[in-house]
C-alpha cells in the first residue's frame, strides 16, 4: 500500500485520508504535544516519544519538502503527493525520497519548507532520477529508495538555499531515536514524530508514529547527528496502516546509489 496520493499508478491503493473523527483526534495529539514537553530530540533527549504534531518552522525542517507534478511553466500543480528531503552532496543539488514516488514519468518539482500553499524557498525542478536496478526491474520493496537531482536556480543548488542532512548508510537500526517529517496529502503543513525504530527484517526497519497517512512516502528519518538513516517506504511501500511506517535498511545498495546520484553534474 503506497503512501502517495495516487498519481503514480492506476493500481494505487493509498492510505485513507483523515476523516472528521480522525482529524479531531489528530488535533488532540497536536494540542498534547504543544502543552506538554517538546517532542523528544533524536538523540533520546527528554520529551514524549511516538507523538505526532505539526512541524515547527526551523532551519532543519526547511530541508524537507513536498513533491508536486510540475505545471508547463515548472510551477506547482494540484496537490502534493510525496515527501523528499535535501541531502548533502558535492554538487549541492540532491534530494532523497522513496522510489515509488519517482516512477510516474511525469515532470516533477520539489518545494522545500512548503506550507499553506506557499513555497518560501522556491520551486525546484527535478532534472534526473536515480533508482536501484532491483526497483526499476521488479519493484523490489527492499530497493524502495531514490534520489532526484534538481536544476540550479540563479546558479545555486538547493543545498545552498536550505542546507542538507548527511545521507548515512550502515547505521544500526534503533541505535538512537529518529525524527520522521512528512507531508500527508490531506494537510498543507508537515507533521513530525520522534521514536526509536526497530527491525522488521534484515532488510527493513519500522517505526511507530501515528497519522502518517498518504503523501508521507519519502519522509526522512533523521537522527540526532542530522543524518538521514531511513526513508519512509519499503515494506508495503510505507505500510498498510497510518500508525506504523517502514524504511529499507540503508546498506550497500543505498550507498552505491547515493554515489551515482551525487556524482551527477
Task: Summarize the helices and strands and which ones pair or pack.
Layout: H1 20-35, E1 52-54, E2 64-70, E3 76-87, E4 94-97, E5 108-112, E6 124-130, H2 133-138, E7 146-150, H3 158-162, E8 166-167, E9 178-182, E10 191-195, E11 198-199, E12 204-208, E13 220-222, E14 227-231, E15 244-248, H4 252-262
Parallel strand pairs: 8-14
Antiparallel strand pairs: 1-10, 2-3, 2-5, 3-4, 4-7, 5-6, 6-7, 9-10, 9-13, 11-12, 12-15, 13-14
How would you describe this structure to a colleague?
- This protein has 265 residues and is of the alpha+beta class.
- It has two domains: 36-57 and 166-251, Thrombin, subunit H, CATH 2.40.10.10; 64-164 and 254-262, Beta Barrel (Thrombin, subunit H), CATH 2.40.10.10.
- It is built from four helices and 15 strands.
- The radius of gyration is 17 Å and the shape is globular.
- The termini are far apart.
Describe this protein with a few key phrases.
265 residues; alpha+beta; Thrombin, subunit H; 6-stranded mixed sheet; 6-stranded antiparallel beta barrel; 15 strands
Shape: globular
Largest sheet: 6 strands, mixed
Q: What is the count of distinct domains? A: 2
* Number of discrete helical segments: 4
Please mark out the parts with pLDDT under 50 across 5 or more consecutive residues, or reply none: 6-46
Estimate the helix proportion, in percent. Answer: 10-25%
Q: Determine the structural class based on helices, strands and strand pairing.
A: alpha+beta
At the fourth level of CATH, the homologous superfamily of the largest domain is: Trypsin-like serine proteases
CATH class of the largest domain: Mainly Beta
Rounded to the nearest angstrom, the distance between the terminal CA atoms is 34 Å
Let me know the number of strands.
15
What is the average of the pLDDT values?
Answer: 86
